[in-house]
Write a structure and sequence with these properties.
Length: about 450
């Protein structure tokens, strides 16, 4: 049988009488937590959404020349605030312990993400009339994947990026990049330097921020009186509907619905005036923000998305409590599928080395006994090892020489892109296993039941 990690069960409401702040341990066979409070409104956290056990830091890949290196692990627990409905992790790692200078995620390595960025810049420039007299700031600008398109339109740009590895690449592209964590204090400095922004972009960074109130206040500080900010996050509604528990990891401190994000933004003096639902990252949402004194009109999309979230039950405790049952079932289904294929003598390899893959494999206890190795086209990840499970990361060309029967797509959010790349690279005759929203097999271009 496929080995599995021992995951302790967690009661829906967590007792706080036996543990001090910041402690965690076992009591009576169940995980017990200290006294933790909502990072936005300060309400005591009592409702567990997902307890994934001890997990490595998802992007802390291990050098293959040091195979005996132990991957440090920390508890990975997501809870929901009963007052503002912000889903958040209990923090055992500080942001500067996770987003270090050697951060290995480079946004430009995904063709589909580059196209997403190019399209976004074109739409924003047209909709809000951006030109050479405008100012465009991106928070968490990574390797300049997005601001390069603004520059090509002649729009003055500035990136804010804390990690040296990606900030250096952006500067090499000629993109002015401030290496720092974004904050309200930094926003004040930028405004004093003349960087009052007409457009602020924050793609997939708001979830990574421990101090959400300071971050939101910083956005308001940056904005011109009628300036616009867009904040893209994975949509909590889609995460829960589609069982995407593997996108819960230590780098993601918070998980947003419009219901919760609206509260955070309003407290900072910002108003959500429009919402776009996006296919990226398994289902994302883009919040359009303006200052609360702006003349920009609020559009019907805000009420529509909010109504859908409430209809699903994101304002009710029981919906969050039930999520753990969904992910337990997915784990069982995936483990049984892989076990059956291995017993039939099938060779299974992986594709991708994303953070979500680290969480999925560790939670399900899938290691080299099931998957010999995974591949990734990012040179920064090749010849390293996925932490916790010991699976090597190799160059994609290894797929052709190894001829696997099945490829487990760990970067399932860009599965279409990956399948197309493999089919174009060589005449692959095997099938693909997609783990979300429930494990299923794609043979040729047809999805079949697992």
């Amino acid at each position: 049988m496929v080995p599995s990690l021992a995951i302790v069960s967690t009661p829906p409401r967590l007792r706080r009488d036996r543990w001090r702040v910041g402690t965690i341990g076992i009591w009576g066979g169940k995980m017990e937590y200290g006294d933790h409070h909502c990072r936005h409104c300060g309400t005591a956290l009592e409702i567990c959404v997902a307890d994934l056990g001890l997990m490595p830091i998802a992007n802390d890949l291990i050098d293959r020349s040091l195979p005996s290196q132990e991957a440090p692990k920390a508890p990975l627990v997501a809870m929901v605030c009963g007052e503002c409905r912000l889903v958040q992790t209990i923090d055992y790692k500080a942001a500067n312990d996770i987003f270090r200078d050697d951060y290995v995620y480079f946004s430009s390595e995904s063709i589909s993400w580059l196209e997403h960025a190019r399209k976004y810049v074109g739409e924003m420039a047209q909709r809000f009339g951006l030109d050479g007299d405008s100012r465009h700031i991106e928070i968490a600008s990574n390797d300049g994947y997005l601001l390069q398109y603004s520059q090509s339109l002649g729009i003055p740009t500035l990136g804010v990026e804390p990690c040296a590895s990606v900030a250096t690449v952006a500067r090499d592209k000629g993109i002015d990049t401030r290496q720092a964590f974004f904050s309200q204090a930094l926003a004040g400095q930028l405004v004093a330097e003349g960087w009052h922004a007409d457009l602020v972009t924050a793609n997939n960074v708001f979830a990574h921020v421990p101090d959400v109130n300071d971050f939101a206040a910083g956005i308001r500080t940056l904005l011109m009186p009628n300036g616009v900010a867009t904040v893209e996050v994975q949509h909590l509604l889609r995460l829960m509907q589609r069982n995407q528990f593997d996108t819960i990891y230590h780098e993601h401190f918070s998980y947003y619905s419009l219901l919760s994000a609206k509260r955070v933004f309003e407290a900072a003096g910002l108003r959500v005036f429009d919402v776009d639902e996006l296919p990226t990252h398994g289902g994302s949402v883009r919040f359009y923000l303006c200052r609360d004194d702006s003349s920009v009109q609020t559009l019907p999309s805000v009420a529509r998305v909010l109504a859908e979230e409430i209809a699903y039950g994101l304002d009710r405790d029981e919906v969050y409590v039930g999520f753990s049952k969904q992910i337990s079932q997915l784990k069982q289904d995936l483990v049984e599928l892989l076990d059956r294929l291995k017993q039939d003598g099938k060779k299974i390899l992986g594709y991708g080395a994303p953070a979500k893959g680290v969480i999925l494999l560790n939670y399900c206890g899938i290691s080299t006994g099931i998957i010999d190795f995974t591949v990734d086209k990012a040179p920064s990840k090749q010849n390293k090892i996925l932490p916790g499970v010991g699976i090597p990361i190799l160059h994609p060309k290894m797929l052709e020489s190894e001829e696997p029967d099945y490829i487990l797509v760990l970067a399932w959010n860009i599965a279409d892109e990956i399948i197309a790349q493999i089919r174009a690279a060589f005449p692959y005759q095997g099938a693909f296993i997609i783990p979300m929203p429930k494990p299923h097999i794609i043979q040729g271009v047809v999805s079949v039941a697992a």
